[in-house]
Design a protein that fits this description.
The complex is a heterodimer of chains A (about 100) and B (about 200). Chain A is of the alpha+beta class. Chain A is built from 5 helices and 3 strands, in the order H-H-E-H-H-E-E-H. Chain A has a 3-stranded antiparallel sheet. In chain A, a hairpin with a 2-residue loop joins strand 2 and strand 3. Classes of the chains: A alpha+beta (about 100), B mainly alpha (about 200). Chains A and B meet through helix 2, helix 3 and helix 5 of A and helix 1 of B.
């Protein structure tokens, strides 16, 4: 049963999984890049990034590039650790 | 019971990680064709430089013809690469102009642009001997730098060209030979490796 315990509910969605995967291999990603990669609507992406931000797995940085507002996301240390654990748990569950 | 869903999750994670960090629509076939163009260019270069049916009156004519042949090879290679990569991206559903392709292009063009300017300055000083080594070295470094953002094979193409560039600097006078090896043979070799690994599915 301990195997299932390691499955993190915060990542139990295709879009949240995608966001974390992108942020694991890139130092940061902005809203547009995530939107392009995951092929989701603005509202959908915003709600999932908010959920991940709330549990402290990603950090959000708002800034202006020229006059355009730009939102940049990065995975926090705890987010990376949690995601690694989640992947390990998934791999173990498949292995059985 | 949920094993299928977990497997899907892992597949999704892997595909997102590679798609967000690497441009994977680079066509191997375009590498092969670039190599073929370079081999043809190399053969023309041989005909120009060594006694053949092609006769020139002045050194200037020889230089101009060589530069024209080299430019022709580059133009054909770039056009082919763009066309085939565009086609491959369309087929696999990857956007041609996305974060990965931009990052790949910028990191490829920085060393290559520096090399291009360097070679032009060498031409101005008439350091003919160093042209072939310099093009090989800078092209190798451009590939090495770009390889972080696409298939790993490009890294070995880069390293091979750097080594050839250094050898060409030592064995001066064999510039054309090293040029044919680096741009012709290497491209065909690594291009076919990539073609069989990624293009044919």
């Amino acid at each position: 049963m301990s195997l299932i315990d390691n499955i993190n509910k915060a990542f139990d969605h295709r879009i949240r999984l995608g966001i974390m995967s992108v942020l694991m291999v890139n130092d940061h990603a902005d809203f547009k890049m995530l939107k392009e990669l995951l092929e989701v609507t603005d509202g959908n992406l915003a709600s999932h990034t908010k959920a991940l931000e709330k549990v402290g797995y990603i950090s959000v940085e708002k800034q202006f590039i020229g006059r355009k507002p730009n939102t940049r996301y990065a995975a926090t240390r705890s987010g990376k650790t949690a995601f690694k654990k989640h992947i390990e748990a998934l791999e173990k569950l498949i292995g059985k | 019971m949920d094993s299928n869903k977990y497997l899907e999750d892992i597949t999704e994670i892997k595909s997102m990680m590679s798609r967000s960090s690497r441009f994977i629509s680079l066509s191997g076939l375009s590498g092969i064709l670039a190599g073929v163009y370079a081999l043809i260019g190399g053969y023309l270069g041989y005909l120009i430089l060594y006694p053949s049916f092609w006769k020139f009156d002045t050194y200037e004519e020889i230089q101009l013809t060589l530069v024209a042949v080299a430019l022709g090879v580059v133009v054909f290679a770039v056009l082919t690469a763009m066309l085939l990569t565009f086609r491959k991206a369309k087929r696999s559903g990857e956007k041609i102009w996305n974060v990965s392709s931009r990052r790949l292009l910028v990191n490829f063009l920085i060393p290559l642009g520096a090399g291009g300017i360097f070679v032009l300055l060498l031409l101005r000083l008439e350091y003919w001997m160093l042209i072939a080594p310099a093009t090989l070295l800078f092209y190798g470094m451009a590939c090495l730098n770009a390889s972080k953002y696409t298939f790993g094979d490009v890294r070995y193409l880069g390293i091979t060209n750097i080594v050839l560039g250094l050898l060409a600097t030592y064995f001066t006078g064999y510039g054309l030979l090293f040029w044919i090896l680096g741009f012709g043979v290497c491209h065909v070799l690594y291009g076919s490796m990539m073609y069989f690994k990624y293009d044919r599915r």
